[in-house]
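Worked example 2:
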Amino acid sequence: MIKWDLYDDKFNLINEVVNEDEEINDGKYHCSINTYIINSDKKLLLVKRTMNYNFRYPGFWNSINGNVENGKNSVETVIESIDKKIGINIKTFEITSIDVQLRDPYHYIYETFIIKKNICLDDIVFKDKTCTQAKWVDLKELYNMISNGEIAWVMIPRIEKYVIPYLK
C-alpha cells in the first residue's frame, strides 16, 4: 500500500501518514508534482495516458505527474516519476520549481516544475505502462491539441500559466 506524508497549509510536514486511498481531513494535504519538460527548440514533451480507466485521464495527453510518497520529497518524486514513466534519468540540477499551491477541496499541495532538456524520443521507455506515447509539440500544435480536446482538461490552465510563456 502506498503511503503519503501529510502537510499543513503552510507546506510544513506534520508527521502524519495516510494510505493513498484514505480520506484526508480538512487542513491537511498530501504533495503532488507536475513536471513539464521543454527542449532547446521550445517544444514541450507530452505523454499520452493509457486507456486504462484505473488511471486518471485515460487517453489524454499530459505532462509527467506523481504523488510524493512517504519519506520522499518533491524533487525525488520528479526524478522517480520521469524514470518510471519514460525511462529518462534526470539530475537534481536540471529541475526548477516554479510554483507551489494548495489545491482545495482536493487536499493536496501541487508543486510545478520545469526541466529544460533535449530528449530523443527513441530513448523513451514506458516502464510503468501508465503512458503509451510521447511527442514534442510546439506552441501551435499545443494550441491545436487544446482546441481539439486532446489535453487532459485539468492541465489546460496550468499549461497556459506555466508552459506557454516558456514556448513563446
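The chain has three helices and nine strands. The first helix runs from residue 74 to 86.
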